[in-house]
Specification:
single chain; 431 residues; FAD/NAD(P)-binding domain; 7-stranded mixed β-sheet; 5-stranded parallel β-sheet; 14 helices; globular
């Protein structure tokens, strides 16, 4: 069995890579060891609810939307208005018109100093990569609520605490990248987007195998030659391909191709450069609408400083829940997020934060799922500012996804961009 390319992993980066290759006329096979598409951005059915496992926000425009247009896939994103607000002392602060300056100006007299740093960052003047966002912010303000807001922005976007992400990466994202200026939700759950891309791959002559893990990437004379795949629990198949794209991160590439093939330096980078981040996802539903905003609401100070934001999914996508139910997803980021932590204790603190923000929470909420994204199921395979290159020392072997994103980037747009970079180089080599 032979394909032009095998994409290992059907997460955001893998789906974009497979769709772009198929659109360019390549014979593509995309596989995943799970029974669903989207990886941690997949969707499951629980008690009649379409429940997103992790990531929920899809960013229209840019490379993300370009992929759908290239392969003729339908993209259904509903954008809430306002998309993002802050929730400070149980009051909604809408910054859709006044921006961050409006928010900070209402909290501290030092707002102009912080905003000046954003202006300098836009012109290319950035801190070095060693100073954390927390330490950078301390130079301009000690206001507790401001620090809580910045911590929760870091947590919500990067699944990292403010003392874990470099200020350079944080400022790069907010001044030079997407910064979630536009985002929305999918009425079929986030998996609806990945299903559209997978359907396009098949329509364009490719194949998609789920529940089919790769067990080995075969390398000869410094180039990939084949992937050994256990298809749907059956026989081990050897699939020939001159291009293999890993969506599981450089660590996955090392595990499948072998340290000897990739070399000591690449192995060392995969163990020291990458810093997988973690978060905790609370999916729940209520009979009455408890959230005073239709999109994503970022918190300020919370009881334990774990809860960072919450999304009101059914305000724009009522199809996600059975009739009469409102559905939400809240996120908490543990301390630390890029090192070991006590999962049970962190889950409990996140729940206590929710109870404090929404009085009567236990009586009103039906908990659908609580997922701890960590270790082999990370929130991010590497946090912003700690990425490797998309290329590897093995010819024809590439990585896509959130361990090889460009500096300071994040979200599904970053995964889509990594796929574009890889596919452009693959097609360039084939030309």
């Amino acid at each position: 069995m032979k394909f032009d390319a095998v994409v290992i992993g059907a997460g955001a980066g893998g789906c974009h890579a497979a769709a772009r290759l198929a659109a360019a006329g390549q014979h593509v096979l995309m596989i995943d060891d799970h029974a669903w598409l989207g990886g941690r951005a997949g969707t499951e059915m629980i008690d009649g609810h379409r429940v997103n496992m992790g990531a929920i926000a899809l960013e229209p425009g840019g490379v993300f939307e370009e992929t759908f247009a290239l392969c003729g896939a339908r993209l259904d994103i509903r954008e809430p208005k306002p998309a993002a607000v802050f929730y400070l002392d149980h009051k909604v602060v809408d910054i859709s018109k006044g921006g961050l300056g409006f928010l900070l100006g209402g909290l501290t007299k030092q707002a102009s100093k912080v905003l000046d740093q954003f202006a300098q960052a836009r012109s290319g003047s950035l801190p070095d990569g060693r100073e954390s966002t927390e330490d950078w912010l301390k130079r301009y303000t000690s206001h507790a609520s401001v620090h809580a807001i910045f911590r929760n922005l870091c947590a919500a976007i990067f699944a990292m605490n403010a003392d874990e992400i470099p200020a350079r990466a944080f400022l790069t994202y907010f001044t030079q990248k997407g910064a979630f200026k536009r985002f929305g939700f999918h009425p079929e759950g986030t998996m609806g987007a990945w299903q559209a891309l997978a359907d396009a791959v098949v329509r364009l002559g490719g194949e998609v195998w789920l529940s089919s893990p790769a067990e080995k990437i075969e390398v000869r004379d410094g180039r990939v030659t084949a992937v050994h795949i256990r298809r749907d629990g059956g026989d081990l198949l050897r699939v020939e391909a001159g291009v293999v794209i890993c969506n599981g991160g450089p660590g996955s590439a090392v595990a499948l191709a072998g340290a000897e093939a990739l070399g000591a330096d690449y192995l060392h980078q995969s163990r020291t450069v990458l810093k997988p981040a973690a978060n905790i996802v609370y999916n729940f539903a209520t009979r009455e609408d408890i959230m005073p905003a239709p999109g994503i609401m970022t918190f300020g100070k919370t009881t334990h400083g774990r809860l960072c934001n919450i999304a009101n999914l059914t305000a724009t996508c009522p199809e996600l829940a059975p009739a009469g139910w409102h559905q939400y997803v809240a996120y908490a980021v543990p301390r630390p997020a890029i090192a070991d932590f006590n999962s049970e204790a962190e889950i409990a603190m996140g729940l206590e934060d929710l109870r404090a923000q929404f009085p009567g929470f236990d009586q009103k909420a039906k908990m659908l799922s609580i997922r701890v994204m960590r270790d082999d199921w990370p929130a991010q395979r590497s946090g912003a500012g700690y990425d490797m290159e998309v290329s590897t020392p093995v010819g024809g072997l590439w990585c896509v996804g959130d361990a090889v994103k460009t500096y300071g980037n994040g979200g599904t747009q970053a995964c889509a961009e990594s796929a574009k970079r890889v596919v452009d180089q693959v097609l360039g080599e084939a030309a």
